[in-house]
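Private note to self, pasted from the team thread so I don't lose it. Backbone tokens:
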């Protein structure tokens, strides 16, 4: 039976309130994950440089920091994906039954039009970071990981600038390669984890099956 035949305004409004509250909770978790991941990485780097002796003896620590940052990034992206699913549910299932509520429709339409104003890839990326908390937070964590790579490179190359001849440390080299591969994989996966077109297609299909007319996007 189409949902539009018997609309219980109070029930739909309660559902809207629950969805909005859950979205706000997920957004709050994004802030916590972002700050927590950075704090863990800074603690690891503090141990690297603040510990006794030569920091090169603790060469593995920046890679540990990268693992913390990656874990935080994937949790952050997971929370953002959940928030987007809820927002799309609101757009296609709640707002068609409550015409006076339009947050979901306006939010996604604004985002679409905003991205269309940018012509170059670099400008789109910068404006996306400015507009989207999770995307910008993800790139902040990737940037912190890249800084760890720079630290690894500096520590690893330092012996080659000394007066005495340096010997290639295979363990350090393997560590550097693994750390670089981790960051590269993260950069590669980010666009896929922030693409919500399939999610919206499924929501539209479910809305049609339920007898709702999805809003134009």
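Design output:
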């Amino acid at each position: 039976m189409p949902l539009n035949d018997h609309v219980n305004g109070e029930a739909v409004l309660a559902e809207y309130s629950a969805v909005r509250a859950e979205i706000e909770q997920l957004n709050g978790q994004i802030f916590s994950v972002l700050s927590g991941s950075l704090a863990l990485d800074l603690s690891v780097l503090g141990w690297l440089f603040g510990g006794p002796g030569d920091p090169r003896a603790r060469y593995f620590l920046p890679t540990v920091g990268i693992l913390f940052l990656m874990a935080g990034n994937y949790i952050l992206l997971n929370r953002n994906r959940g928030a987007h699913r809820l927002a799309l549910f609101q757009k296609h299932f709640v707002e068609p039954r409550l015409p006076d509520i339009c947050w979901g429709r306006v939010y996604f339409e604004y985002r679409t039009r905003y991205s269309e104003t940018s012509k170059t890839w670099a400008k789109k990326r910068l404006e996306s970071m400015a507009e989207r908390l999770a995307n910008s937070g993800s790139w902040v964590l990737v940037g912190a990981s890249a800084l760890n790579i720079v630290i690894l490179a500096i520590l690893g190359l330092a012996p080659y600038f000394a007066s005495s001849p340096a010997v290639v440390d295979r363990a350090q080299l393997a560590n550097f390669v693994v750390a670089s591969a981790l960051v590269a994989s993260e950069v590669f996966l980010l666009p896929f984890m922030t693409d919500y077109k399939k999610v919206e297609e499924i929501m539209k299909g479910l809305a049609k099956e339920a007898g709702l007319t999805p809003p134009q996007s």
